[in-house]
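Dear colleague,

Following up on Tuesday's group meeting, I ran the structure prediction for the two-component complex that the binding team flagged. I've pasted the input sequences exactly as they went in, so you can double-check that nothing got truncated or mislabelled along the way. The structure tokens for the whole assembly follow below. Feel free to forward this to whoever is handling the docking comparison.

Inputs:
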Amino acid sequence: MTNICVTTGIGVVLPNTRSLEKLWNDCLGRDESSARSDGKGAQGFVSEELFEGCIPPRLSKKLDAFTRYALAATHFAIEDAKLALSEADKERCGVFVGNCFGGWRFTEPELRNLHCDGPRSVSPFQATSWFPAAPQGQISIHYGLKGYSKTFMADRASSLLSISAAAQQIKQGNLDIAIAGGTESTNTDFVKAALRRLKKDRDGDDDAFSPFAPGRDGFAVSEGAVFIVMESERHARARGAKIYGRVEDFVIRNSPCDTDEYGADPIPFIQSMKGVCNGAAPDLTLPDACGFSDCDRAEAHAISEVFDDVKITYPKARLKHLFGAEGALDVALSCLMLERQQILPTFVDEIGPPLKPTQVARELIDARLDRILINARASGGAVGSLVVSRMEA
Amino acid sequence: MVSNMHLNHDVVCKIVIETIVQYLGEEGADIHDESQLEADYGLDSTELVCVAVDLERRLGLDLKQIRFGQLKTPNDIADAVVDLLGRRSVRSMPALASA
């Protein structure tokens, strides 16, 4: 691998948020319009008015919400990158998507139609709208991209995998440009039922989502899409692109457990973080921080074992967890923090051991940031760690 | 739903155009009897299934026997529907069918 992979554009479609400035302000708690009516963190669903006009109506009705989010976020990412795809070699442009749930917003009413009125009442777009690779296909068709592309379904680690796979293809010289990220539509009865199963006997209330806080054990999901324009450094410099950061290495490890369980073993995270950092501690870590106390405890032990006193932040405590798209959101936030040389705060009441309260950023901090580590965990025992770093202009 | 008694070619063609316009939205505002559905409006085979199912609802007819993929214009679809109706009325009168 001889090429350097850089990020040059970020696009987001999140609850009440489609601009990077608003995302930043939401993370700071400055914009209360995105907070829930009780004021506790962000609401968990996307209003499609946010990206009205981005997708032709005729195309829109063939798609599930998660694909519409992905197309809109891709549009914003390309706009942010000031990338003229018409001038690019389309055979060297790929699409990498992370997704877990697929298109249940489209599917649920169609299943009702099937049950009540028979097969003739099911939309012929059911097959193409539901499957998790739909966003990859639609982005490829919309922009005419023909390079190597892939969709990853790996639970909450999906989009960290999609971004790392895109980086690998660029580093290996197979692609000049990749559109990579993740998308989820979770505001459906089926997904809510699946998440209730995930929560099991834990606290089902969204307010219980307070990662690393003693006595808290719960999960709160959000929805939306985050896509990143990634390029080889050579390609980005040749067109004079603004560079947010560099995608370095990714390491994935596994400590197998039941497929619908999350492992509570710190060893895989110790291995993935050691493997990806190669002896050099990061300036900041964005942990998986899923809110389940046993998982968080294992990750906290792993972080404490590998790095002494590394700074930590997890804006997801306010934004809620984006599930398969969370890795991409963490990469996006890391890029913004690298650009601004500031650490976003974490909104939690309390931090439990082994993490020290001083480790967790509780307010916006000016800091020298060169390398940021991002963790993600998937059901079945997989964990992954990715490093993004600052690039000199 | 329209009574079969009133389903002559012109009526069917009007309903076909209304159905396609509803599917295409603004893109289909200028559609007419001889518009080329695929060449002029990019209506693909899956979209044509949507139109066919909606047309079935509007006409109260089972149109599964019609090969929509081979039809190019609203006029072609109207011809096929009227032809299907004709064949059905012949089948419903055994003496005529065997003649």
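The CA atoms of residues 17 and 31 of chain B lie 7 Å apart.

Cheers,
M.
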